[in-house]
Amino acid sequence: MRCYCVTKHNEPLVAVDTETPTLEGTQVLVKVTRAGICHTDLHLWEGSYNLGGGKRLDISDRGIDLPLTLGHEIAGEVVAVGPDAGASVVGTTCVVHPWLGCGECDTCQRGQENICLKSASIGVFRPGGYSEYVVVPDPKFCVDIGDIDPSQAALLACSGVTTYSAIRKFGEVLKDVPLVIIGAGGLGFMALSIVQAMGFKGAIMVDLDQTKRDEAIRAGALAAIDSGADDAAEQIIAATGGGAMAVLDLVGAEATTSLAIASVARGAHIVICGLYGGELVVPLPYIPMRPLHIQGSWVGNLAELRELIGLVRDRGLRTVPVVERPLETAFDSLMDLKQGRLLGRVVLVP
Ligand SMILES: [Zn+2]
Ligand SMILES: [Zn+2]
Fold it and tell me: Which positions carry the signal peptide feature in this UniProt record (predicted)?
């Protein structure tokens, strides 16, 4: 099988041909039909994350070894199973849940592999989807997508489950109050569609960019507010009728989280999902006196991906512009993403 690997950071991906793996235990082999290219892939290729304030997180310190086959947004078909996997899953058209852990610790046993201390995420710590085939450790991680378009389904494994998991953390309050979404990029529009599909009250989108704010209104946002305006917090307070009860910060910068804190009502809940970086300084008495609930959210777990796929199968979701390109273009496409030359997401087709 052919895969495209990072063999050295910041150098072209290398096409590597290997034997198709022999499956053990509960492993299954998925023939990749779509593999999305994501900003995370770019960080893995570069070898570091920007933490803000001039600090960088070197990924080799996190146990990510080369060569690495990138790709964690995978749709495909189960074509072979290990001796303990159960043959009935062969032929399933699926999206692969990539956010795996060790499978054994208490966190994993609680179904929260995505935050296991020993991450084994596909396309990060183990070979991913820029490949003809990918090995998945257990059939339970292959979620049946039925007739969902596989290119759209692949994206649900990353931006989809990330925003779904964050939105779920607010709970039922979103039936009654608007969700304020900071950051109208790919994640922001995914979050807006999920809020709409779940039948919640709706979303107020906050972004610096006028074009994105206009697009947000066209997509059905209740309001769109310029985060760069001097009175952005007052505008959010007015639009929410006295202060936001639920804010999703998809940027995660000092300025955006500070704006969130300045815009909320008493008893509000802020979920931070973005990784832009920087530091947050909050007067401690604010937290008990308001009282504030500030929470982080990191990708999502298998149960959440299953729920999301169910939601999309039942209710549908606004589609994201996708460009399908051959697997051979993996490196060129990654560079197009780096240079900002793409309108929409690239999904590789082996
Ligand atoms: Zn991704
Ligand atoms: Zn674990």
Answer: none
Closest by alpha carbon to 347, among 328, 329, 323?
A: 323
| Distance from residue 40's CA to the centre of ligand 1 (Å) | 6
Predicted confidence (pLDDT) per residue in 86-114, tens digit: 889 999 999 999 999 999 999 999 999 99
Which tokens go with 262? 């300045």
Closest ligand to Cα 104:
2
Residue 73 Cα to ligand 1 midpoint, Å, equals 6
**Residues by chain with Cβ below 5 Å of ion ligand 2:** 101-102, 105, 108, 116
Q: Which amino acid is at 194?
A: I
With bands split at pLDDT 50, 70 and 90, how would you rate the model's confidence at 184? very high
Structural domain range at position 85? 2-159+300-349
Question: What is the tally of structural domains in the chain?
Answer: 2
CA distance 269 to 245: 6
CA of 72 to the centre of ligand 1 (A): 6
Verify that 154 and 27 share a domain, yes or no.
Answer: yes
Which ligand is closest to the CA of 108, given by its number?
2
CA 300 – ligand 1 centroid, Å: 12
Q: Are residues 147 and 186 in the same domain?
A: no
Shared domain for 113 and 49, answered yes or no, is yes
Q: Which two structure tokens, joined as six digits, stand for 158?
A: 């990353």
Asked if 48 and 68 sit in the same domain, the reply is yes
| Torsion, CA 212, CA 217, CA 219, CA 225, rounded to 10 | 60
Residues 149 and 175 grouped into a single domain:
no
Read off the pLDDT of residues 114-173 as tens digits, 9 standing for 90 and up. Answer: 999 999 999 999 999 999 999 999 999 999 999 999 999 999 999 999 999 999 999 999
- Output b/e per residue, 322-346; b: 16+ Cβ within 10 A: beebebebbbebbebbeeeeeeebb
292 occurs within a structural domain: yes
